[in-house]
Amino acid sequence: MANIAKTIVATGASSGLGFELVKQMLAQTQPYKFILGARDTKTTQAAFDGLKYDSSKHSLTIFPLELSNLKTVKTFSQQALDKVGQDKIDYLLLNAAIAINADEPGPHGSKWSEAYIVNHLSQHYLIHLLREKLEASQSRIVVVSSGAVRGVQDPSLLESDVKGASKTERSVYSATKFIQLLGAHWWRRQLQGKCHVVAVSPGLIPGTGLPRGTTMQLPVNHPDAKSVPEGAQSIYRALVRDDFPEDPEQIFLTSWGEWWSKDVYKLSLDKSLQDKWSPSKDEIEKEEGITA
């Protein structure tokens, strides 16, 4: 009997780790239906077409998505749901991230920095928009995180750091990835018994476009450095592993394949912080000026 195709909705798959992950999965015997969001759909489509994958087995659809503009997130969610139709969403992969500072005002009149909107708010909003289908599908939601979450020592500084034009000297990337992890914990609580939520670090990967346009440097000769294919495999493990820890708060899978001890990210276990940084769909739409 032929394998039933599994459906993956994903952000951040047009280059780097996300592209490599889809490339690896397109080489599998298991058929997949990919629904991807990308800023430049034409270039992304050409890149995947260049892989010469078996289109009789796999399908790949790319819709426009600019994560710094939440209006496009809403449109993307509607297009993705239309494409899925009566089928399930087996996996929601949230991989998109940028590593820029917060020196500039927020995009589209937002009070928040672009890094905060892309790394957390827009993808948190996407889960809200897909929630009904995700629950019905008992989907797995994979949030691509980072060891950089350990860079946050004082969560009381987060709000001032991730606002537009904050000009903070602290790491905006660490702050936004920490907030993203707070959101992953919040969704784990909201969707308990319905969906699995897994956070995963792909490891230290020098060969991606993450630092593009910044002074951030990832040393190629670092002893913990991993290749892009290795990083993609780390993310893939988060899609397929089913040996979940007994403690439901232990959601973080490391790049070496172990479930991280909660001690490492204990600051993110504060439920009041999780609630603060996980606004409702209506709150997001009101604050960001998104209409029906």
Please characterize this protein's 3D structure.
This protein is α/β, with parallel strands linked by helices and 292 residues long. The protein is 38% helix and 12% strand. It contains 9 helices and 7 strands; from the N terminus they run βαβαβαβαβααβαβαα. Strands 3-2-1-4-5-6-7 form a 7-stranded parallel sheet, sandwiched between helices. α1 packs across α7 (228-240).
Question: What are the SSEs and their pairings?
Answer:
Blueprint (H helix, E strand, L loop, with lengths): L5 E6 L4 H11 L5 E7 L2 H9 L9 E6 L5 H15 L6 E4 L19 H24 L2 E5 L13 H5 L9 H19 L5 E5 L27 H13 L11 E2 L17 H6 L4 H8 L4
Parallel strand pairs: 1-2, 1-4, 2-3, 4-5, 5-6, 6-7
Key features of this structure:
single chain; 292 residues; alpha/beta; 7-stranded parallel β-sheet; 9 helices; 38% helix
